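Give me the 3D structure for MFS-type drug efflux transporter P55.
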Amino acid sequence: MTTNHTQKKATAGREGILIALGSSLTIVGSVMVAPMIPKMAQEFGPTTPDIATLLPLTITGPALAIALFAPLAGWISDRIGRKKMLIIATLLYAILGMLPALLNDLGDIMISRLLFGCAEAVIMTCCTALIADYWHGDERLKFVNFQVIAIGLIGSIFYVIGGVLGEQSWRSAFYLYLIPLLLIPFMARILWEPVKNSNAEAMEPASSDDPTKVAKLTLIVSFLMIFGGMALNFVVPVQMPSLLVAIGVTSTTQIGLASGISLLSTLGGSLTWALWRRLFNIGGCNALLMALVGVGLWLLATATTYEQVLFAVIIQGLGAGLMVPNVIASAMQALPSKVRGRGIGGFTSCLYLGQFMSPIIVGMLMPFTKGSLTEAITLLAVISLVVAALWLLAQLFGAKAPRQTEVQPN
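Predicted structure for MFS-type drug efflux transporter P55 (410 residues):
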């Protein structure tokens, strides 16, 4: 047992970097395609009557596939092992990701992207589950935050790279998906399969009286939080361009700059999460992040100038950056190792389903706001603030109970 523990400590840095790189593949899967959509529309528009439906699915399709496939991926990983699944999925990610560069039919590209999303589901589920398997206590929370920050940084880099390569041909950028093949030898050599039901389970801070049981209420709340939170967060990237055009901002450069600032503020939230968690604990952070998201959306809906929009997305982005590490930390704490893959798979499913449902939810609210997009977003802002108030009340009137389950420093 001592040898095992020493080995984990000695290789934690390499394992953490490798898992963070693997996790980043999911964001790379979407951001590299977005800049190429106009050129794909030019090529396939004249020959594809239903391009208005198929082309958006090349971006949103993988998110839907992740949402549907992640629970099954988690269940399989609990059965056959996370390391094997991760290596196989990384290989499929590279092949399926590159495939659109060789295809000449938009329908075939859309199908390849859906299958690509299934590979992404396995990668995200296995990487997140391995973090929970390898590390405990504050070490786990540190790597959760590192994972989220790495995803944001690498996503930003590949967004730029994809746009540069796409200037000449939209097909060129798809060959970048072959790069993760370089990770496979390191995954095979460095990563190790966690032992199920080991004594390490006893090191976990119990979320229930029996640390081998799922803390169901905590897990359900985490699922609801990440689904609703991602639905709220994706209002900015999906609806902000329309809001900017409505106030007279039509420059693609300015719209792109606003998106970049939003992403950077998200990273700011992730970087400061550890500080806020120490000050307010996980429940208090939920209140803070939902308040930031709500205020940001309200400011976005009422903005009348470009500068006001930028201020709004910065406030909203800070809350969005706090959300994923804070909510997933709670979900991990609720899951014993024997069902961790299934639980993380469910969490991943809710995360991507929230992203996919965001524009649909806004559309469902439009009839109640007489077709006003700004009023629909304002209504979502109010919902976010109400949830923030409920978390605050839970902290004020039930602070002792949550703190007993809070992760303590090693």
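The chain is about 80% helix and 0% strand. Let me know if you want a second pass.
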